[in-house]
Amino acid sequence: MDVDIGNALASVASPGVSRESLERLDEQVADAHERIEDGMADGEHGYEALNLPRRTDPDEIRRTVEPVADAEALLTVGIGGSALGAATITNALADDSETEAVSLDNIDPEWVSNHLDRLPLEDTAINVVSRSGTTAETLANFLTVREAFEDAGVDWTERTIVTTGESGPLRDLSDRHDLPSLKVPNGVPGRFSALSAVGMVAAAVCGHDLEALLEGAAAEAETLSGSLFDCPAYAYGATSYALDARGAGMNAMVPYAESLETYSEWFAQLWAESLGKDDLGQTPLRALGVTDQHSQLQLYRAGPRDKVVTFVTPRETDDRAIPDTEVDDLAYLGDATLGELLDAEFEATEASLAAAGRPNVRIELERVDEYELGGLLYGMEAACVLAGELYGVNTFEQPAVEWAKKATRGLLGGGEFEEADAVAEKTELRVER
Ligand SMILES: O=P(O)(O)OC[C@H]1O[C@H](O)[C@H](O)[C@@H](O)[C@@H]1O
After folding, report:
1. Residue 78 alpha carbon, nearest atom of ligand 1
2. Pair (224, 182) in one structural domain
3. What are phi and psi of 395, to 5 degrees?
4. Atom nearest to 80 CA in ligand 1
5. Which GO terms describe its molecular function (predicted)?
6. Closest CA to 152 of 188, 195, 123
7. pTM for this one?
8. 151 domain residue, yes or no
9. Which of 149, 259, 308, 379 has CB 3.0 to 4.6 Å from 154, enough for a Cys bridge?
10. What are the catalytic residues?
């Protein structure tokens, strides 16, 4: 990926960061990079994720999914970091696959039932993913899916691939039924695991090029260096951090490609869960170009000066001509293609924010394919790790989320958790009809 931070400079935007401030910040980037390199070399928790392009074995993943390769549908059962990487990859590349990929990451009963009633279960693969193997939503959905397969007379054990940690309830279940399984690599938190089996099993079932995903990521890894001016990922992480310190406490991720809509969800988890600690962190917002030009852009351009907008734009896309019309005022459209209109709208929106002095950053990809996607996922992970070093937070933990997980289990009688007591202590001020 290439990153253009010109519209985040103080000469353009407020809040903005001056070139001099970036040069001073670059000294901290150099220190942070040393820390990151050491962490990677030692395989430390979290930093190990940045080694995945060299560690993930595509052959092992392909071999494991062999029984369900090219299924008509794929049901990924997981949540958070155990679902969003797979969904980002399969949704971005959906046009190149015959397999319909569905991510069962919510437990809304109507929604779950609709999918199970609709999908051809006899030709559906189940990809169940949980690092801990204990996440209530994932296990509840898996049990539900299993039963639906049994009710339809389909042997779920023939159609299930498990990806989980070395031990835990899901590992036990997998062993008991002798299911094909893969391991979530040690030291890799869920939201940093898209380039391991966690995200790649889905890619493999859908027939995507695993090597290209990893090569794209490896090429991005090659750019990691001691200066933000030489490394797109660090340029992004450092600029976001600097803008946040100057008041841009929100970061709106706006891809100009429908296929990247889920990528914004993945980014939101990465940024929020990694950096939202110790009263620090930048709030990720999700939007989509051009759709949200006609809803959120008003706020981004004229609301509080508390945001940076991040555009993601592929340079090349498939295109489609806009047909001529008999109406003179619309003749200009007939001379263009949908792709040209999309590009023009992107450039106009970017310029409109800059003209209003609103900071924005452009991330360019060649196109949306495996190689570029691998680079984007890796690049944003590295950006996040760098930002975590600059904030001085523990990027790789998520105690606030764990708190609610424990409270839920306590409420359901899944163990003694004092967190559950807080539910009964809720303050009420009801206004009833
Ligand atoms: O992979 P699992 O252990 O099932 O966890 C799934 C998700 O659970 C929690 O919400 C964590 O905060 C996420 O970081 C994690 O990705």
Report:
1. 4
2. no
3. -60, -30
4. 16
5. carbohydrate derivative binding; glucose-6-phosphate isomerase activity; monosaccharide binding
6. 123
7. 0.96
8. yes
9. 149
10. 273, 294, 405
Of 208, 242, 277, at which residue does a domain stop?
A: 208
| Token pair in block for residue 217 | 């990521």
Q: How far is the CA of 91 from the centre of ligand 1 (A)?
A: 20
- Whether the per-residue pLDDT at 334 is higher than 90: the answer is no
Residue 160 has pLDDT above 90, yes or no: yes
**Which residues does ligand 1 sit against, CB inside 6 Å?**
79-82, 130-132, 135, 138, 190-191, 273, 398, 401
20 and 111, same domain (yes or no):
no
- Residue 315, domain member (yes or no): yes
pLDDT one-digit tens code per residue, 391-418: 999 999 998 888 888 888 888 888 888 8
The whole-angstrom separation of Cα 148 and Cα 185 is 30
pLDDT band at 281 (very low <50, low <70, confident <90, very high): very high
Which ligand 1 atom minimizes the distance to the CA of 79?
6
Say if CB 122 and CB 152 are below 8 A apart.
Answer: yes
Ligand 1 midpoint to CA 381 (Å): 17
Q: Where are the alpha helices (DSSP H) in 119-260?
A: 136-151, 169-176, 197-205, 210-222, 232-245
